[in-house]
Amino acid sequence: MRARLSPSFRRGLAVDLGTANTRVYVQGHGIVLDEPSVVAIDLRDGKPVAVGSDAKAMIGRTPAHVQAVRPLRDGVIADFEICEMMLAYFVRRARPGRLSKPDMVICVPSGVTGVEKRAVMDLAEAAGARQAWVVEEPMAAAIGAGLPVHEPTGNMVVDIGGGTTEVAVISMGGIVTSQSVQTAGDELDEAIIQFIKKEYSLALGERTAEEVKIALGSACPLQDEVRAEIRGRDLTTGLPKTIVTTTEEIREAIEQPVAAAVDAVKVTLDRAPPELAADIIERGIVLTGGGALLHGLDARLAAETGMPIVTADNPLQCVAFGAGQCLEHLGALSDVLMTRSR
Ligand code: ADP
Ligand code: MG
């Protein structure tokens, strides 16, 4: 398992199989596919009717015989079969017309067990990989954000996705300390659903809650607090209803999970060896993942940790891009990859 064979990829693929989104990087081309990790299944025959964006648009809108499934939850594979179906579909779409099996680099959350890493490699091979290699997500995120991961200096990344927030301190090509908590985008959506239900007796779907979070969510007071309309279903009458909420209210609604993510950052910072902590004060903490785009999260983290905070360019694609860099620069980066010993 710990084997670090020296790989030689030809037209390899790097896959960021995220709880919310999957991205595929093709060696020599870059990221060619970026789609929600959702499959719509026809329950009558178990066959997929849609995958990716088309399937996500169906969440909460399907007839009884169709179910929109997210096969990953909290950062790990919740439904192996559907996950395999989804990955195989994305791999085919990323390299149309090619029959040979690609080598595949696939990302795993930090701190997963050997068994879980093997499950992800099994999945990649079942979905069409010739050989699968894993890279830990925070490492891929740091490489994707352009951090000098091999230097003897402290690099800190915080990757906030749909299911997990991963916080890691990296130096000399290895993760020195890390934490993965199951508080991320999905929990913010759920907190909004609960809040709107309690305050307004209004039922919101998962997708509307996510839209509300993206439009109105924040982690600290905004210069211009705004009001906005939200539509849902009245829980007492069962009829469609529109309510007016504010950015202050939505901030309050998501405060608990936001504070939990902030705490994970503080705890990891506390655990960093002093020399590396000193480097981080100088270089700052880099934010990646979709959650990095929450309004005011950077300011909130800066206030609570006293560290400079930098949001990576294109935070949603950092992990996939970093995993892709492992394919492109094998000489320099192969040491962060792991595969089965053969
Ligand atoms: P994963 O790696 O788990 O698939 P991503 O890094 O793709 O996750 O991020 C997806 C998460 O980021 C979702 O929960 C999504 O709602 C959230 N997100 C995307 N854009 C924003 C935004 N502008 N503000 C707040 N959250 C966002
Ligand atoms: Mg991710």
Structural summary, described in words:
The protein is of the alpha+beta class. The protein has helices at 53-56, 80-94, 114-126, 137-144, 185-200, 206-216, 247-271, 274-283, 297-305, 318-328, 330-333, and strands spanning 13-17, 21-26, 30-36, 39-42, 47-51, 66-69, 72-73, 76-77, 104-108, 132-136, 155-160, 165-171, 174-181, 202-203, 227-234, 240-246, 285-288, 309-311. A hairpin with a 5-residue loop joins strand 15 and strand 16 (240-246). Helix 4 (137-144) packs across helix 10.
Q: N-to-C SSE series?
A: EEEEEHEEEHEHEHEEEHEHEEHHEHEHH
In helices, the fraction of residues equals 25-40%
Q: State the major sheet.
A: 5 strands, mixed
Total beta strands: 18
Strand content: 25-35%
Using the CA coordinates, give the radius of gyration: 21 Å
Query: What overall geometry do the principal axes of the alpha carbons give?
Result: flat
Order of strands in the sheet with most strands = 3-2-1-9-10
N-to-C span: 9 Å
Q: What count of helical segments does DSSP give?
A: 11
Q: What's the rounded overall pLDDT mean?
A: 95
Ranges with pLDDT <50 over ≥5 residues?
none
